[in-house]
Amino acid sequence: MTTLTAQFDVPIGVDSPRTSRKAVLAVLGVWGYVDEAWTDDLSVVVSELVTNAVQHGAGSVVIGVEANGPQVVLSVADGSAVVPRRREPDGRGGRGLLLVEALTRRWHVEEHEGGKRVRAELRLYPDGDGPGREDQ
Ligand SMILES: Nc1ncnc2c1ncn2[C@@H]1O[C@H](COP(=O)(O)OP(=O)(O)OP(=O)(O)O)[C@@H](O)[C@H]1O
Ligand SMILES: [Mg+2]
């Protein structure tokens, strides 16, 4: 099965989460991943991981998307080697990674170019083998 990949830099600022959502949805939309409930969940995951990278991470932020039929992996890299950890939610936050955990199959952190990359395996795309199989 062909794996489709994309990687792009995120302009850092207050618009980073919105810009990232748009870019990820555009790329996956071109590849045929358009199911609304699935892309809604994906949007939350993109927002939380990019917000974390901008707020808690450092350096440049790079998004990766890998799609292989129904299996899609989103990654968000930043230049800080600090490993994100779930924490007890309180009045100031602690809910982002809880959401990521709830909306993905699994997520993990790997070392990446002196910083780290958070990789989230999204829920399986609902259309069986994934979109566009007739073309592949
Ligand atoms: N990219 C990152 N780099 C370094 N530390 C991170 C990163 N992402 C998360 N963390 C750490 O993990 C903790 C938990 O992240 P989480 O997103 O669950 O909560 P939050 O960002 O503090 O609050 P919320 O997302 O609810 O606004 C953060 O408080 C932070 O200490
Ligand atoms: Mg957060």
TrEMBL record:
Residues 19-120 form the Histidine kinase/HSP90-like ATPase domain. SUPFAM superfamilies: ATPase domain of HSP90 chaperone/DNA topoisomerase II/histidine kinase. InterPro entries: Anti-sigma-factor_SerPK, HATPase_C_sf, HATPase_dom. Signal peptide: none annotated. One of its GO terms (molecular function) is ATP binding. Keywords: ATP-binding, Kinase, Nucleotide-binding, Serine/threonine-protein kinase, Transferase. The keyword DNA repair does not apply. This is ATP-binding protein.
